[in-house]
Amino acid sequence: MATPFKLLCFLFALTSSTSLLPSSCAQTCSGYTFSDNKVFSSCTDLPHLGASLYYDRDASANTVSVAFKAPQTSTGWVAWGLNPNATKMVGSQAIVAFLHSNGSMMAYPTQLDSYAPSMAPAALSFPVNDVSAEYVNKEMIIFATLGLVGGGTKFNQVWQEGSTVLNDVPKAHSTRGDNIKSLGTIDFQ
Ligand SMILES: *[C@@H]1O[C@H](CO)[C@@H](O)[C@H](O)[C@H]1NC(C)=O
Ligand SMILES: *[C@@H]1O[C@H](CO)[C@@H](O)[C@H](O)[C@H]1NC(C)=O
Fold first, then answer.
1. Is the CB of 28 under 6 A from ligand 1?
2. How many Å lie between the centroid of ligand 1 and the Cα of residue 83?
3. Following DSSP, what letter does each residue of 25-92 receive, concatenated?
4. Which ligand is nearest the CA of 156, by number?
5. pTM
């Protein structure tokens, strides 16, 4: 079945010159098919770490369902979050995922409250529900539904990956290259 993106891009291509194609039609994120027929109305290829973010805002409920996807080995971790107050890691309200030593993908919310956060599960500054994760084709995927407190749709976002999980605790990521560039803004509009 065609995803809504593909259908929209196809209709644009039929009716417009290609120069009018929405830039999202050039994105590679839109070609991805999630398990369980999960479908998101929007996606963006994030500029670092090969990651992408899929989202679907429910304006009446003031929530957004997201999927964050990034390449990873089975022994690493990935994380994505929003920083309500700053464009940096510290203060970010994140969700982390990794393969637990018992063989299950684990995902939970965690507060990045310093440059050496505990990575322990914690409540975030906004509601988070339906948190889960999958490991598919060497990519880790985090799913969650966030409550958009305050009614805004534009947020600072951060995303990250690290190679090591020790005793089921994600360890520090690299502080070079892409790993220190992986932040920006997202508008769930
Ligand atoms: C963001 O700033 C507000 C206002 O200063 C504060 O109440 C809130 O706790 C801060 N949020 C986080 C996640 O630090
Ligand atoms: C693995 O451990 C996590 C965290 O304790 C737990 O939530 C999950 O159910 C466990 N999975 C299995 C297959 O035991």
1. no
2. 10
3. GG-SGGG---GGG---SEEEE-SSTT-EEEEEEETTTTEEEEEEEEE--TT-EEEEEEESS-SSSTTE
4. 1
5. 0.86
Q: Whose CA is nearest to atom 10 of ligand 1?
A: 85
Domains along the chain?
40-187 (2.60.40.1210)
Please name the residues in contact with 168: beta carbons below 8 A apart, sequence gap of 6 or more: 98, 100, 101, 106
pLDDT digits (tens, 9 = 90+) for 133-160: 999 999 999 999 999 977 789 999 999 9
- Is the CB of 101 within 6 Å of ligand 2? no
- Give the model confidence (pLDDT) of 14-30 as tens digits: 454 444 555 555 669 99
To the nearest whole number, what is the mean pLDDT of the chain?
Answer: 90
Provide the percentage of residues in the chain whose pLDDT is more than 90.
81
What b/e readout covers 104-128, taking b as 16+ CB neighbours within 10 angstroms?
ebbbbbbbbeeeebebeeeebebeb
